[in-house]
Amino acid sequence: MRRKCRTSNLRSINEYGRVKDYLRSYLSAPHWSMVGLALSAVGVLLLFRFGMPYRLRPAEGDYYVTETATKDWKDGLYSFLGWLGLMLIIGGTLCQIAGAWLPS
Fold first, then answer.
1. Are 30 and 99 in contact (CB under 8 A)?
2. Which single residue of 33, 43, 60, 86 could bond 99 by disulfide (Cβ 3.0 to 4.6 Å)?
3. Residue 38 covered by a domain
4. pTM of this prediction?
5. Can you tell me the distance from the alpha carbon of 85 to that of 24, in angstroms, rounded to the nearest whole number?
6. How many angstroms separate the CA atoms of 22 and 16, rounded?
7. What's the structural domain count of the chain?
């Protein structure tokens, strides 16, 4: 008789091959969709308020500096909150996919 080992959640998913049962054990399908909508809404609000984070490489060439480029704490905070909003939208989308994939 094979002993059932529950040392980690990922191991139990691989052992039984029941991802739907694993997701359903936490929340039902409508709840996954509601959590996804809430995460996406908060993410969109953060992106509208703090802006989309950009990582642009400067082009090659000569530049004339007309003012000092001081980076204060607000730039870092806005960048962090922009990335957080983007990650919340991605997480909300994944939760909505899980809610649509699970049977009600």
1. yes
2. 33
3. yes
4. 0.66
5. 26
6. 10
7. 1
